[in-house]
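Lab meeting minutes (informal)
Scribe: AK
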Amino acid sequence: MKKALLLGTGLLIVILVLYFLIASLVYPSEYVRRGILWGESDVYDYQKFPERKIEPGDNPFQFEINYEDESVQAFFEADPKIDDLDSFLAETKTQAFLVIHNDRIIYERYFNGGERDSIVTSFSVAKSFTSALVGIAIHEGYIGSVEDPITLHLPELEKRDVRFKNITIRDLLMMASGIKYSDEVPLFHDDGAKTYYYPDLRDIALTGTHIAGHPGEHFLYNNYHPLLLGMILERSTGMIIPQQENTDNSSISRLRRI
């Protein structure tokens, strides 16, 4: 029995080593290394990736503070799955939970070691910033409208598959582009890992995306969308984030010129 167990373990190790070696031949070694060593994403991933500091503006907006703890707690605790809001948030590994209404912070709690000045990975908060920048770029004339086909700014996609020209900026913003996205396939091959650990996200968004359906028909959470939107912003404005010394006062020009 012990011999069979050792044999099985050894065989599994050989298979895993071969799998990782093959993956290294197909994908960049840095991508494979990140997938092996970093594992599942977490709030401390900001410590692993390169960073660029974004300085605050001269007159940052300040939310008013007017806590309404009891009313907020009562609202959430109306859900039969939640007996006590604070306990629920702590048990679900929440680090920060804020409720903002009419530009007022009405509820603010921190859990599991989190504090107001804690640094954590932003994850999909970045999507909200990206959509806001798209709106600013439209307002300032860098982008025509959300109805622009994405190939107007990313012609490489149409050269690879003409169907990309049917996708609009709105489709990306609404998570309904028809672009294939699956995170239920083996390690390294799933799109979730590629859009998180791949060392050149621009490249994987331009060369690794494929059409799976018609745009505008179905919602599908897809991390290729913010990557494509980011490149559309770069191409249309000629800027990337950030640059402190830029003296232009327009909102979009607080990005850095390429």
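Next up, CB showed the second protein from the same session:
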Amino acid sequence: MAVEMTFGANEIRVVIVDDHILFAEAVRTTLEAKGMEVVAVVGSGGAALEAVASHHPDLVLVDIGLPDQSGVELGRMILRDWPATKLIAVTAMEDGKLAQKAIRVGFQGYLTKNVDMHQFISSVRSVLAGSTVMPQQLVARRDRSELDVQIERLTGRELEVLALLARGFSSHNIAGELHLAPNTVRTHVQNILTKLQVHSRLEAAAFAVHHGLAGSGGGVFRTAL
């Protein structure tokens, strides 16, 4: 279930990066009707970087198929210079591998353009609240026997750390919760990434939630459909 938020006027600043003007304007109208401020609508990666530098938005919606560069690479560049910015890929491409690549880069969401606007707003709210969203049909699935082997490799302590990662805990908070030294937590996290064959804490958290390893506290990963 998406986390509900109330947006006040001009509270959330958004940049839309999409060369399909009709779609971009429809998104602008929908977001502004929900109390968000769309500070720029641009159609290229170069213009997007200028808009982000000028407006410092809270959220950037990025079309993956931009005319001048990959939207995923644009996202990487935005996060390099403005790491607090939240990114959602918005694309016509239902490509699971591309979605996973975007998440690895640091996007908090991957939405297809055929999603209805009610679900679109729900997904935006979830991302702004700290979740990651992706259409159900694009969530990676693995062979169950392989999953069993991967999960069995994790120690009891690593499973505890993984569950807290899935609940959005930082390394510092995990150390406090489990009464561990920060270096010990970092070691556990690295072991988890290696054993699960994932590339980031975010991927590990998504894996945990999708496969029921997050415990009762919920998780940061949400499917959009």
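CB comment: The mean pLDDT is 84.
No objections, moving on.
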